[in-house]
């Protein structure tokens, strides 16, 4: 069942984890679950190639400097502005605006979306959390249908009790914190968790969790570096979702043993 609310869509999915689960984990999609680095880099390459082609047809030969994937991703992880990435690639003046507009247009094209890959260890992480009674709620700025389809293809959709996403395909690429804050608050109002964490790979996820007064886990496997994430003072920093899952389940078991 899909409903529209405040520019967002969400889906409720039947799950074996009860609604009064002792812990709810609100989990981001791009970064923690899906590796988008290849799609972003290919988008960058295509954008450069198209701008070069446009100017060559006009008899102009721009002197471009295509970044390696390693350098490009490092700049994205350090939150380097896209304008600076364009300039470092040799673009100047109106070329930069044309490049940025083109990247925004093509980043969500189906042929590029297929470049996304499930992060290593994610299936183990989600299965572990679900087996321990953790209620999993996806909160993503990705289009809701896109996220649900990818989870379905990898037989992961049924592990989530709810999926919250957007209707606008451009929101995820822009990754504005205020959008994530509102989306998480809406999800929390429907879940009413007794205890909860927010896990994600960007400042938007950390700020959203903090705005809702829940602890946060920042992951370094996505589009932000550990150094950058530390500036926002998340509760914890982990390398990936599997590491975070082990921490959460071990903490829950320890708490249960202490109470007993």
UniProtKB/TrEMBL annotation:
Keywords attached to this entry: Hydrolase
Molecular function in Gene Ontology: phosphoglycolate phosphatase activity
CC terms in the record's Gene Ontology section: cytosol
UniProt KW tRNA processing keyword: no
Any one Gene Ontology BP term: DNA repair
One Pfam assignment: HAD_2
Isomerase is among the record's keywords: no
InterPro entries linked to this entry: HAD-like_hydrolase_sf, HAD-like_sf, HAD_2, HAD_sf, PGP-like_dom2
Protein name: HAD family hydrolase
């Amino acid at each position: 069942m899909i409903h529209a609310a405040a520019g967002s869509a969400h889906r409720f999915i039947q799950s074996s984890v009860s609604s009064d689960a002792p812990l709810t984990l609100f989990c981001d999609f791009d970064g923690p679950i899906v590796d988008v680095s290849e799609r972003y880099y290919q988008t960058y390459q295509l954008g450069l190639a198209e701008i070069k082609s446009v100017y060559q047809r006009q008899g102009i030969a721009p002197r471009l400097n295509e970044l390696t994937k390693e350098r490009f991703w490092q700049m994205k992880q350090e939150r380097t502005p896209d304008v600076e990435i364009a300039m470092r690639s040799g673009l100047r003046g109106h070329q930069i605006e044309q490049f940025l507009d083109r990247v925004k247009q093509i980043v969500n094209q189906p042929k590029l979306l297929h470049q996304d890959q499930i992060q290593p260890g994610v299936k183990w992480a989600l299965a572990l959390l679900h087996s321990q009674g953790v209620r999993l709620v996806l909160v993503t700025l990705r289009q809701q249908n896109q996220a649900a389809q990818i989870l379905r293809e990898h037989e992961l959709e049924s592990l989530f009790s709810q999926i919250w996403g957007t209707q606008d395909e451009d929101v995820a690429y822009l990754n504005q914190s205020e959008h994530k804050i509102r989306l998480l608050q809406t999800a929390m109002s429907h879940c009413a968790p007794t205890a909860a964490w927010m896990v994600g790979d960007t400042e938007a996820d950390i700020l959203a969790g903090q705005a809702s007064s829940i602890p946060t886990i920042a992951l370094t496997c996505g589009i932000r570096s550990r150094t950058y994430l530390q500036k926002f003072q998340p509760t914890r920093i982990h390398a990936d979702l599997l590491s975070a899952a082990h921490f959460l389940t071990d903490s829950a078991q320890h708490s249960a043993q202490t109470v007993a």
